[in-house]
Every structure is written in structure tokens, then in C-alpha cells.
Amino acid sequence: AMTTIVERRTQDPNDVIFVCDFSPPRGPDPKLLEPARRLDADFISVAYNPGKSIRVNSALAAHWIAQNTGKEVLFTLASRDMNKVAAQSLLLGAALLGLRNLVIVKGDEFSERELSAVKAVDDFKPTEFVESVRSMNEGLDFKGAKLRSPTNFCVGATIDLGRGVEAQIRLTRRKVEAGAQFFLLQSLFDTQLLAEFLDRYASSYGEV
To answer: What pLDDT is stored for residue 1 in this prediction?
Structure first.
């Protein structure tokens, strides 16, 4: 069985967990996924269509990596690209394949030029998407109808301190309340920002 991020953290709260980002290939040849074997990381995080380019779906690529390398994985999904039916159907398939770790993002917005060829969906806001995964774990779909069996995802979200500490504190709290169990931080080159975020979040909500 796959290990969740939370389970790994609980095993040793002081351990440094290495999560390596991996871009799925722009083609279905399994050889294109072979570089994942060489990644010495605790978890391989499969990105969702980076650069808004057409790539192997993140959940399917994560499953291939897990099955063929034995490494722990997580996969990202963007609320931008799928309506609620498509998103939850994909998640049922991912659960069928045994995937556990999921990160929800909004996804980069399409430019005006790109919107002439493609539509953004955004049927879920990211926080709503997180909440819907919690509901699926409780055995309910987005309509409130009972699933034949619940999912068992460990759902995470992201924090981008480049968008302002105060705004991210409020947004992070909303995601926690929606059911986010872990967070990945966008690239950060000023550690003082992170210290400020953690201090202010703790003073506001009494926990980190």
C-alpha cells in the first residue's frame, strides 16, 4: 500500500522529507518516464500539464511511476481544466489504481491568445475542490449522492508567499478548514517570509 505524506511525517516529525517535482512526458512512450527511476526522493510529485502543454495525465503517470519504480508518488490536479463530473470521475479512477497523495492547484490562467483555442473551466475553486475530496473520502460525490465506496486520499494544497503573507494566511486557513492535510510551498528565496508566515498563522489560529 502507498504511504501518505501525513503518515510519513507522523513516523518522524523531525525528518526532512524530499519531494521532487516531475513533469510527465509529451508522449505515451513508457521510455519517457524512465528518468523517474533515477530520482532519489522520498516522494515524486507528478505535475499537471506544466506550461499548459498537453502531457500524460498526472494521475496515470504517477501510477506508472509507482508500479514500475516502487517509489512513493503524489499527483497534482488543476481546477482550471475540469468540470466537477470529470474531476471526480478521474479521482475515482485514481483511487481504483491505489493512488493516495493528491495536490490541488488552480493552474496558471490562460492568456487572451490561448483563450481563442481553449476554455478555462474552473467549475471548482481550489478550496471547493479540496472540500469535495474530503466529501469523497466520506463517501459522497459533489451532488451529495452516496458513493458505492469512499475514496482514501491524502489531499494537499499550495501556499504562494509571493502573493502576500496576510492573504496567504487567510487562504491557507480556508484550505485547512476545507480539509487540506498538507501544503507544498511555491519556490521561496527569502526564508524570513516563511518564518513570518508561520509566526503570524500560529498567533491567529493557535496552531501550525
So the answer is: 77
Handedness of CA 144, 108, 56, 188 (dihedral sign): negative
Of 127, 147, 125, the residue nearest 136 (C-alpha): 147
| Grid cell 506508472 in the structure block, residue | 64
Chain CA centroid to CA 14, Å = 23
Question: In angstroms, what is the C-alpha Rg of the chain?
Answer: 17
Choose among 87, 78, 59: nearest CA to 157. 78
Q: Which of 49, 51, 36, 118 is nearest to 77 (CA)?
A: 49
Torsion-angle region of residue 134: left (phi > 0), alpha (psi -120 to 50) or beta? Answer: alpha
Burial call 182-193: b when 16+ CB within 10 Å, e when fewer: bebeeeeeeeeb
> pLDDT tens-digit profile of 56-78?
999 999 999 999 999 999 999 99
- Residue 183, helix vs strand vs coil: strand
Check whether 208 has a pLDDT greater than 90. Answer: no
pTM: 0.94
CA dist., res. 19 & res. 124, Å (int): 26
